[in-house]
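Hi Prof. W.,

I finally got the CubicO group peptidase, beta-lactamase class C family prediction working! I wasn't sure whether to trim anything, so I left the full sequence exactly as given:
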Amino acid sequence: MLTRRSFTALATMSVAAPFARPAQSQNASVLDSAFERLEQLHSIQVQRGDDLVYARAARGPGLDELANIKSCSKSIVALLLGTCIARGEISSHTARLADVAPALLPEDATEGAADITIENLVTLQAGLEGTSGSRYGGWIASGNWVADALRRPMIAEPGSRMIYSTGSTHILGAAMTEASGQSLLSLARQRLGDHMGFEIPPWVRDPQGYYLGGNEMALTPRAMLSLALLMRDDGTFRGTRIVPSDWIRASTISRGRSPYSGMGYGYGWFLTRSGYALARGYGGQVIAAHRDLGLAVAITSDPNRPARSGGYFGDLIDLLDNPILTFAEAA
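And this is what came out:
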């Protein structure tokens, strides 16, 4: 397995080698080498401006078949939230859960749950005990995922710190369904997929019929790249406005910080030190946009193997920061 240190050394050697090929070809060569060393890696696509400068699927279902994007779904829910606010279905990011979707609150909800705001949910700062990691199985086994998440103990002041929890995004997705009168699947199809030319199949629903907000959505890698372009281009896709630009800009302002990776976190998007807005899914699924350098990136990986910040996911960040970032310099 290629370590972060050895990969960085390889990338540096490749770029600095004498008699080297043009920079873009060197970058492609380093990415090709990554497939040989990173056994989890399925596909990489890189677009600079209007040009697809790298696209390869060495493993997995390929670029045109569905891949489970795991928690990249959280970032898509956040994009849809921007459309709900723009249409007045939700009054503001500061609206309280009790005002947006009071029917979701169980009678025995944790004290203070009613006052959790939409912003608290989309930034993963609801304050409630998380439902991810070791608690995920028990949460999914409950008879009511929304109510179970809202009964969790309050372990932090809402808005004070990031607590990674699929339960928070699921509450948000259910609130958007209540506010808009449409399922999360319908919102995703009508406001993203139909306009951008890709299909979104149904995915997991909870016992009450709400689509799981924040996990298990499937898209093709090409659709993932389209979403990266949407983020890169301030909410437009091929000249068509899809998501309000002010929401995209607000989404890429850090509102908190991941206790695991140290990355900033905006409205559903991780923010790297090198300037990417990034959706991250279990196993190493990545949708990334670098607005300033005109880059859009989609990466898929084995969805059944972990990708920790200090391990494989760190290797992917090295890919984003060295050969991929320098594609912009090869223009």
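The two ends are 32 Å apart (CA to CA). Does that look reasonable to you?

Thanks,
D.
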